[in-house]
Amino acid sequence: xxxxxxxxxxxxxxxxxxxxxxxxxxxxxxxxxxxxxxxxxxxxxxxxxxxxxxxxxxxxxxxxxxxxxxxxxxxxxxxxxxxxxxxxxxxxxxxxxxxxxxxxxxxxxxxxxxxxxxxxxxxxxxxxxxxxxxxxxxxxxxxxxxxxxxxxxxxxxxxxxxxxxxxxxxxxxxxxxxxxxxxxxxxxxxxxxxxxxxxxxxxxxxxxxxxxxxxxxxxxxxxxxxxxxxxxxxxxxxxxxxxxxxxxxxxxxxxxxxxxxxxxxxxxxxxxxxxxxxxxxxxxxxxxxxxxxxxxxxxxxxxxxxxxxxxxxxxxxxxxxxxxxxxxxxxxxxxxxxxxxxxxxxxxxxxxxxxxxxxxxxxxxxxxxxxxxxxxxxxxxxxxxxxxxxxxxxxxxxxxxxxxxxxxxxxxxxxxxxxxxxxxxxxxx
Length: 429
Prior knowledge:
single chain; mainly alpha; Growth Hormone, Chain: A; 21 helices; about 80% helix
């Protein structure tokens, strides 16, 4: 049951988020903290540990991109399966949330013992399964508990990710200073993962189910899923988020590597820059989520995605050898400004896409739709590898340009969606 005090007519965004006596709000913050922990270590690994693994195992840029491709493929495909399982066995949603963190820590610990590139591909594959299990049950729960503030609740989930991504690089730099070896840093992940998993199992209660929100059989599930996927708005959203994933994969994968390898910037400065970009996401997440609730999902997604595309193209210009070779503070400031500005939109948009998809999904399909939106990224799994080939042959700027053009295309596709106010404020059946 959605408690009356959560009615948006009676609670502002800040008032709702601070209503800690409300069980649903406590669950919201538990999910936010769980998502923070997931991205804290996972984000730090991708930003600073993977480049060190690249050097240690003697990889080229294309092989480095392949690691990200394998991880993305594993994450996307596992997410789709998790969404189906959560909607089919909704009473176990809280179990899935805690288990995802536990498996992430266990896989990271195991991967720390790998010493060859081929086995690391397998390690990354398994490291991506745990994180994939978090989003469908977590976002499904938030969508059901906060129907009238869905954009805000879903964006707070993203807020947790941004906090983790900000703290991740800084934490990893600190741990590397203590332990030196990246393997030791990965091994200690098992301890916080276990503690956080137990905390999530304690705080997040077992969902209260009704006949209207329960799927009784596989045939009923498949029927509901097909009905949802035939929705024209859902089709456009899946196409748009797939294009966005392709573009982001080409850009975000290579920003840390460009800064470290091409420009020779020190770990601590790269960590600071990435943290500043994520900080912009922390600020923008609740703002853009609330704007999407009040002004509409479409306008926020179109403008935001277009801005990310333009900033990515701007990054390509700054990374072009004719510009990057200029020894000027203007170039450095411009590069930093673009990366930080990009963070204000990049990290907020994904959850607005998810909120839009949840608006048009049925009450029985919310975890599956989350999974499909995340899983649609499977189309983009080869984007980092392709971008790596471009970077190897022509330079990093071509990866950024490729990603920027695709992101502009995603913004154009979003012009064809239609989400009504009634859909945005719909209650679960």
